[in-house]
Amino acid sequence: MLADVGHVIVVDDDPTLRQMVIKYLEEHNVPGRAASNRAELHRHLEGAQPCLIILDLRLGQEDGLDLLREIRSHSDVPVIITTGHRPDEIDRIVGLELGADDYIIKPFSLRELLARVRAVLRRQEIGRAARARDPERGGYRFSGWKLERRGRKLVDASNAPVPLSKGEYALLLAFLEAPERPLSREHLLQATRIHEDIFDRSIDVQVLRLRRKLENDPSAPRIIQTERGVGYVFTVPVEPF
């Protein structure tokens, strides 16, 4: 269990779904509050800040993406977006690029939603702890590997150094700072700052190079997996140090 969990705001114009989600979260010790539109969400945000927002991108006459932009303009509160099936794929991609932390497709199981809520809150706690450290010290451990930020040094399970280019290091760092979370190609391009490279604009090429260094079988990757319609996800747990 996560310690000191605050409340979650569920933003959805379906009253039955709102109450069902809130009831389930509260049964699992996650307090919840309901909002059906922008005005109700804003009233909640004027009080105690939530630990997370679950935001439906289809809010009747209102645009959930616009609401996500508003949230991100003044807050870094974690947001899980909910969307429909394939016709809403572009919304999921845009939502992730606007700063959503995860997404779940309707109809979803309440058990999966709770797991995603807990995972996002856990990553938030890890991120806060990492930011409290000197950004040029420490690093990350994952699946037998270790990345040391000082010196930009990657070592494998046998403690042998593995050289990384600047682009590979920046890409790996972007993954390690957001593990087990779908990341869009645009997000990764911005994180690695390779827009200026006129000869290599494809994040897919960077991912392929990194897979060749991390994966036992780059053709069947287990660490960096493709998230269809979105981008990539770093699938293994990460431990900051």
UniProtKB/TrEMBL annotation:
GO terms for biological process: regulation of DNA-templated transcription. Residues 137-236 bind DNA. InterPro entries: CheY-like_superfamily, OmpR/PhoB-type_DNA-bd, Sig_transdc_resp-reg_C-effctor, Sig_transdc_resp-reg_receiver, WalR-like, WH-like_DNA-bd_sf. GO terms for cellular component: cytosol; protein-DNA complex. SMART domains: REC, Trans_reg_C. It comes from the Bacteria. Its main location: cytoplasm. Residues 137-236 form the OmpR/PhoB-type domain. It is found in: Cytoplasm. Pfam families: Response_reg (PF00072), Trans_reg_C (PF00486). The modification 4-aspartylphosphate is found at D56. GO terms for molecular function: phosphorelay response regulator activity; transcription cis-regulatory region binding. Residues 7-121 form the Response regulatory domain. Keywords: Activator, Cytoplasm, DNA-binding, Phosphoprotein, Transcription, Transcription regulation, Two-component regulatory system. This is Regulatory protein VirG. It comes from Bradyrhizobium rifense. The lineage of its organism: Bacteria, Pseudomonadati, Pseudomonadota, Alphaproteobacteria, Hyphomicrobiales.
